[in-house]
Amino acid sequence: MSTMLTQSRRRSSDHFQPEDMEPQEQRRLRGLLEQIDYAAYVANRELIGHALAQADVAAFQKLAVLTAQARARWGAEAIRLAESGAPATPDQVARLTAARTAYDELSEAFDALRRMVERGYLPLK
User: Fold this and answer.
1) What separation in angstroms does the CA of 8 have from each of 61, 67, 76?
2) Per the record, which residues fall in region Disordered (predicted)?
3) Rounded CA separation 20/32 (Å)
4) pTM, entire model
5) pLDDT along the chain (125 residues), means of 10
6) Taking CA atoms, which of 72, 77, 98, 118 is between 20 and 30 Å from 14?
7) In this structure, is residue 98 part of a structural domain?
């Protein structure tokens, strides 16, 4: 099983290939798996392409700016806490957590949308 590290979590990709299977049966299984993968590709392309038809490079630029702003807010909040010299209060930690969560979500969304373009699910204008 292989794993892929994204911004904040690991995704597993489990493509089991039994080794004790006859070569003919392995080819048949690979053919079936290719059909399954293609069905997923077509479904993603149609549904994502329809749902995000308005997406264009300008939307990605806006999302990139929004993500950078969230990252800057998170960093600024952390620096403010550090400069105070006092132990962080629960409210301060909650604000820092909210800022990180906002950045993480925006970053994950940007990466996911980029993968949609890369895989051909989302054609850009």
Assistant:
1) 22, 15, 20
2) 1-25
3) 18
4) 0.76
5) 56 66 90 96 96 95 98 97 94 97 98 96 89
6) 118
7) yes
Predicted confidence at residue 20, as pLDDT, reads 78
User: Would 80 be classed as within a structural domain?
Assistant: yes
Q: What phi-psi label fits residue 67: left (phi over 0), alpha (psi between -120 and 50 degrees) or beta?
A: alpha
With respect to residue 101, please indicate whether it lies within any of the assigned structural domains. Answer: yes
- Residue 7 in any domain: the answer is no
First to last CA, the chain: 37
Query: Mutual orientation of helices 57-84 and 90-118 as an angle, nearest 10°?
Result: 160
Q: What is the pLDDT of residue 125?
A: 77
Q: Give the domain range for residue 65.
A: 20-118
